[in-house]
Design goal:
Two copies of one chain form a homodimer. With 213 residues, chain A is mostly helical. The first copy, chain A, has a domain at 64-202: Tetracycline Repressor, domain 2, CATH 1.10.357. Helices cover 69% and strands 0% of the residues of chain A. The longest helix of chain A has 25 residues, at 13-37. In chain A, helix 2 packs across helix 3 and helix 6 packs across helix 11 (189-202). Chains A and B meet through helix 6, helix 9, helix 10 and helix 11 of A and helix 6, helix 9, helix 10 and helix 11 of B. Chain A binds a DNA duplex (18 and 18 nucleotides) through residues 15, 19, 22, 43-45, 53-57, 59-61, 64-65.
DNA sequence: GTCTATACAGAGATAGAC
DNA sequence: GTCTATCTCTGTATAGAC
């Protein structure tokens, strides 16, 4: 019996591994196409073609386009979680937040799935009903909020803004229209990245000058 | 002949006026639906229904959905131009820029067509080929760039950022994902507006603190 | 120029053999 | 579980009468 178990139970079995691998490939392809073309424009046929399987096979893994794309979004959040996990312990809160911003901006410049669904996309509606997605987002939000609170306490982030606002301001950079706008005008990704970080963190008005009216 | 002219030429004739009025109504409805639902989700049937005419009649005015929505986008830019025209002469460049930002943010909060097409929307591709749209955008960009240059010269805007970057940073606020994000979390539009302006102009890091790494 | 009715295409989803 | 072939629905666009 023990030997049987070793052969059948110990790990997912080749079949299950294949299954999982294919599912991962599907999610990866979806994630890429979602970033390149957006939810409405992307088609399930394209995903199937990209993976190299038939569309019907895809529907054995996922209930529908919504389901598929929700999984892709969860995949992106999971990547973010792993990134946050991998941050060196010696980094302070501000440095962590800066690294996060850098990561989000690079993600968009790489034409990958943005962390946030596009405004008014049907995907946004779907995600509202996806508990797994909300749980992941909740987890990363809590972690980031803690860093923000620390940075504010240390006087490194502006205290006038609620932590939640700073959180949203950061996350929103993942889909900032400024990046495509500058790219369209022919700038290098490296420049765009630097400007985006600078304008987000430092703002637009001059330093010692008058505050808002 | 002169009298004939007075009767026939002097103004568009009732028919033409009706035509123009209907066309305006179509564009207005399109603009609203475009803001509410986005290009891909919005349907021509909905526009026709909103105006109260048959879809076929709509196609007598516009060649297709692309054409229709391009007209709507031009309409939005034209509104922006009128807003800029109406700014009081006594306002300085910084105040003008601030008013502009306020206007753009309010536009988005009102669920109207954002000044910029959504990322990866088919509309963006269409607009690339629309000379009228580019001409309008070029005109407003030039005007705003002039104010930015003045404000930078006066030390009121950061000189480290190229004027073009500041321009894009402003315009991009018209489609900033931060607004929907904060709204989803249950905040008032007034608060969101204030936070968006503050974080855009003043940035996130504390004032006298260390610069970027 | 406006309508009703319809053609046409694309994409999501499924049936049924293997 | 995967495939090929097909269904079905939705949405763009047009034909043709008035």
């Amino acid at each position: 019996m023990g030997r049987m178990n070793q052969l059948t139970q110990p790990r997912p079995s080749f079949k299950a591994q294949m299954h999982q691998a294919r599912e991962d490939a599907i999610v990866a392809a979806t994630s890429r196409l979602l970033g390149e073309k957006g939810f409405e424009t992307m088609t399930v046929d394209e995903v199937a073609a990209a993976v190299g399987i038939a569309k019907a096979s895809l529907y054995k893994h996922f209930a529908g386009k919504d389901d598929l794309c929700a999984a892709a979004m969860v995949h992106v959040v999971a990547r973010l979680q792993r990134f946050l996990d991998a941050l060196p312990d010696e980094l302070g809160p501000v440095q962590r937040l800066q690294a996060l911003l850098h990561w989000l901006l690079q993600l968009q410049l790489g034409d990958e799935t943005p962390l946030l669904p596009e405004r008014n996309s049907a995907l946004a509606q779907t995600l509202r009903g996806c508990d797994l997605y909300h749980a992941c987002m909740q987890e990363v939000s809590a972690r980031i909020l803690a860093w923000i609170a620390q940075a504010q306490a240390a006087g490194q982030l502006r205290r006038e803004l609620p932590p939640e606002v700073i959180l949203c301001a950061r996350l929103a950079r993942a889909a900032d229209p400024m990046l495509p706008l500058l790219r369209e005008r022919g700038h290098d990704d490296a420049d765009i990245l630097a400007w985006a970080m600078d304008s987000c963190l430092g703002g637009l008005v001059a330093r010692p000058a008058a505050m808002l009216t």
